[in-house]
Design goal:
Elements: H1 11-18, E1 29-31, E2 34-36, E3 50-53, E4 55-58, H2 70-85, H3 90-97, E5 108-112, H4 119-127, E6 139-142
Length: 144
Amino acid sequence: MGWRESTRLPEIYIDALKTMRTGDISAVLRSANGFHILKLNDQRGAASPVIVQQTRARHILIKINELVSENDARARLTALKERLENKADFAEIARVHSEDSSAAKGGDLGWLSPGDTVPEFEREMNTLKPAKSARRCARRSAGT
């Protein structure tokens, strides 16, 4: 990966690297993108804490497969979006319609750090305004 500022690393990496020394290899880490193993080659600037912006998000996922075309998935999501715009409860809609493990939690993905999701999702998520009852970002100190 080369040198990266900790602000450009997923929180799962930051948490693992905090306890590692140069030359250490991490345990197997699981993220939304798959499984990872890290090796810490060197550190610099470890004494200064870093501010990491996080976003708490919910989503509804409709998967495309041999039975559901892209057009079908888009039509289903368009219909769900219309219901949401008419004040339907997002968590309830996600519980019933989302096709991933977050459905049971009303689509809640928890607190996400930069890099935790695919770039397209992250870009779109970052354009949204926070819900009135939610905070968009939390600041955490992390030394890496």
